[in-house]
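General statements about sequence and structure are easier to judge against a single worked case. Part of our work consisted of pairing the sequence of a single chain with a tokenised description of its backbone. The amino acid sequence and the backbone structure tokens for this protein are reproduced below.

***
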Amino acid sequence: MKKGDALHCEGHAMPTTDNKFNLGDSKRRWRHLHAKTITSGDLVFDNGVKATEDGNGLAFTNAKGTKIARLDSKGNLHIKGRVIKDL
């Protein structure tokens, strides 16, 4: 451990209760997170867009909860809107 390190853990670091505690918040975020494997539930972004499991693929919903796209296990992308080439 180097000077300034505030947390050192040998073994598992686990909360005492499932699905109850946060790690950081909107004003005190972790800058980098390095992991070999991350297993998560839904990915919810600050703008309300969500990526979630959908059968054997991934679904993307907008902030209102409307499904706007689906990426299936064969690599096919299904979208609700149009494909616009402007970037």
Remarks:
- The longest strand covers residues 50-54.
- The chain has no helices and five strands.
- The mean pLDDT is 91.
